[in-house]
Design a protein that fits this description.
Strand order of the largest sheet: 2-1-3-4
Largest sheet: 4 strands, mixed
Structural class: alpha+beta
Radius of gyration: 14 Å
Mean pLDDT: 93
Oligomer: single chain
Helix content: 40-55%
Number of strands: 4
Low-confidence stretches: none
């Protein structure tokens, strides 16, 4: 099953969802704000991608982190920060065929789903 992770009011999530729906591709949407982010799910994300790639350093949430956290981004600090504030993750995260894909570009999705 294809799963799209993010938050429903994110513009990029809206574009990804619209593209999937326009292509009539079945998917499940997991909203971090309503469905949450478990320790196990985050561990799965990190096992499939480097956390430094997963972390959205351009987000308002990241910019609002204390300097102490930003200057000490160890695996444990990052993990706990993201569990507390899932909007620190880049969006969308697309789980497809046991692989994790980050972000949305129409061309990228066309290639992924053409296989």
């Amino acid at each position: 099953m294809t799963t799209l992770y993010g938050i429903k009011n994110c513009d990029t999530i809206k574009k990804a969802r619209k593209w999937l729906e326009d292509q009539q591709i079945p998917y499940q949407f997991h909203d971090f704000k309503t469905d949450g982010l478990s320790h196990e799910l985050l561990a799965e994300f990190v096992s499939k991608s480097d956390w430094q790639i997963l972390l959205n350093k351009r987000s308002t949430t990241y910019r609002n982190l204390s300097d102490e956290i930003k200057e000490n981004l160890t695996d444990d600090v990052m993990f706990n920060a993201v569990l507390a504030q899932p909007t620190l993750l880049k969006r969308p995260l697309l789980s497809l065929a046991d692989n994790m894909h980050i972000g949305f570009k129409k061309e990228q999705y066309q290639e992924l789903f053409a296989q």
